[in-house]
Structures are given as structure tokens and as C-alpha cells.
Amino acid sequence: MVYTEEVRQLASEENLINDSAAYTRDNAAWGTLKNYGNITLSEDSLVVFKFTINTTSAYRLKIGSYYVYGCFTTGYKTGIAFVAAGTYAILMEQKNGGGGGSGSVSAFQLGKAKFSDVAKSNLAAYAAEIDLTVAQRSPASFFGTLKNAVFAVLVWAKTPGAVTSFENVGDAYTNGVQLSVDGVQVDWTTRIHDATSDETACANFYGSLSVGSAHTFTIGKDNANTVVHISIVACPWLLATVDNEPITLDFAQGSTLYVTLEPLDKDPTKNSKIGKVRAVSYGDATDFYSTASGTGILSHTYTFEIVAVSDVSVFVNGFGGCISLVGVDER
Asked: What CA–CA distance (Å, rounded) separates 245 from 209?
């Protein structure tokens, strides 16, 4: 009997904005480069976005009253944020900053996705520490139990009239912004500092933490006037740069496991590994009995004929991707 669960709930997924055109603006003051119109979310939703910056300038992406992204370099930009139900204007703002002149943005897309087993803190101005718990459960009662979730923290920050920077452990910047998880400072996964007081600073953190218990996220600010907009999404089915073990396997010996990994806001190289790091490791080739790696939609299948189900784990990574399906052909 084959049991499957669609943990990425595609029936609820929508591509809300898809605008391939390029738009330009040339102004020394902040203003709207492009108003992409309104979106309406009938429920609190995971919003996914991507766009291309064509010229060096200062840019900010705004959803309603809050900023979710800032940058000043060219290239392909992506991100996710959890946004409360409601109607929101989607604005790309620009000014001639970041060491550049006029701005140009193209290939803008924004949509909403939905996953099982999500805990979230909706996009808002940071005011106090945030506690989140991903509930423990057994996916479809066939698979095992949830073990760890990826906690994705998205932060945008500005200090009026000054440069804002994001501090990793050991850094000491003026107007620094720090992130602590369960009382311990952590390094940001990616960070963009202000260039020249452009109010474009943004950063994110993707980390693997246990399900079934609360985890506390605290923003520290060197300057009390620094404003921080923050969103947190926690889900076992998101992928990070580090390995995440989303489930503890528990099914009959001789069964076949299926895991499907997909792009979310990025299409990174995604990795799925079945095994366990040895006492002395010689790398993935000897630590894991089965591996799969690639871009696009990646399927990993393994039959537990000899290896004991209870003795090994599934580890996944691929920052910007996700798990979409899990399944077991139980024997």
C-alpha cells in the first residue's frame, strides 16, 4: 500500500503578480518605481517573491505598510514572508543611492504558497521577542514523527539618517542589528548592509530547530531609533543551507521511501541524503546509503531492504527550496 502526503498544498497556491516588463526611475529621493497593484489574501499567507534588478541603485519592496526587502546591487532577488489576511498594495520603491544612478527592475513575480505544519509570526514592526512552536505530529500516520523544522526569519531595518548593519557573532558595527535564538546570538544566513544611509538593509536567518517546543527570537538593536520589520516562518518542509532532519522514520522494514523536493523562491541545488554521519566521517559517499542532488523537481526514492529504518535518518538542504511530497510504499 502506498501512502503519500502533499505537504506543499498546491490546491491553495496562487501566482498573484507576474509582470515581465522593465520599469525605470531616476530620482534622488525615495519614491515609487512601480506600483504592482493590490493583492488580497483571504487568510494569513506565505508570500513568495522574486524580481531582477537591472541597474545599481537603491531599492525597497513594500507590502502594505511594511518593507520586506532592500538592495542596491544588480541581479536576481528572492524572498518569503508571512503576511496577515487583508488587501495590500505591492510597491517597488527606488532612489538614486547605493553608489548608483537611475533604477530599473523587471521580471517581478509574487504569489502565495501553503504548507502543512507551519508556525508563523506575521510581517510587522518588531516590538518584543517572538515565541513560536511547530506542533508535533505524525504525517499521515504512516511515516514517523516530525523532528525538526526550518525557522526562516526575514528582517528589514533602517536607522534614520544613518547606515544600518547586521551583526554576526563577534561583529561590532555602528547601528548594528543582532538576532538571538533561545537567548543565544546567531549568525545571519544572508545580509545586506546599507550602502550610504540608503535605508535598504535586510537580512535573513534559516536554521533547523526542534518541533514540539517553543523557540524564542529576539532582535537586538544598538540604536533605539532603528526600525525593524520582521516576519518568521517555521516549517519542517522548508530547506536551508544547513542539513535539516524533518522526520524521525518509523515504518515497516522492506518499505520504499519517497521524498520530492522543489524550488520555492529559488531553484537551488537540492540535496536529500539517507544515512548517518559516522564516528569518523569521510564525506557523504560513506556516511549515506543513498543520495539525490539536483535543481528543478528532485525525487529521491530508497527501499529499506537491508538498512534498518530505525538506524538512519533523512537529511535535506537547499536554501530557497522546499519538500513538496512525502510517501511510503509500505510492505
From this structure: 9
Contact 88, 38 (CB under 8 A): yes
In the chain, domain spans: 247-329
User: Amino acid identity, residue 129?
Assistant: E
Distance CA 209, CA 246 (A): 10
Neighbours of 285 (CB within 10 A): 7
User: 269: which residues sit within 8 A by CB, 6+ positions away?
Assistant: 293, 294, 295, 318
For the cut 80, the answer to whether the pLDDT of residue 200 exceeds it is yes
pLDDT of residue 141: 54
SS3 for 285? Answer: helix
Beta bridge mates, 61 = 69, 92
What gap in Å lies between CA 287 and CA 294, rounded to an integer? 19
Give the integer Cα–Cα distance in Å for 144 and 146: 7
Alpha-carbon distance of 219 to 208, in angstroms, equals 18
DSSP result, 181-208: ETTEEE--SEEE--SSS-S-EEEEEEEE
Task: Determine the distance from the C-alpha atom of residue 46 to the mean position of all C-alpha atoms in its chain, rounded to a whole number.
Answer: 10
Dump pLDDT digits (tens) for 225-242.
999 999 999 999 999 999
Averaged pLDDT, 89-100: 94
User: Which residues, in sequence order, are bridge partners of residue 316?
Assistant: 244, 272
Residue 155 CB-half CA count within 13 A: 34
CB within 8 Å of 123: residues ≥ 6 apart: 63, 66, 68, 81, 82, 83, 84, 154, 229, 230, 231
d(CA 177, CA 221): 5
Gap between the Cα atoms of 317 and 243, Å rounded: 5
CA neighbor of 166 nearest in space, from 186, 137, 147, 144: 186
Predicted TM-score (pTM) of the model is 0.95
Residue recorded with cell 539525490: 292
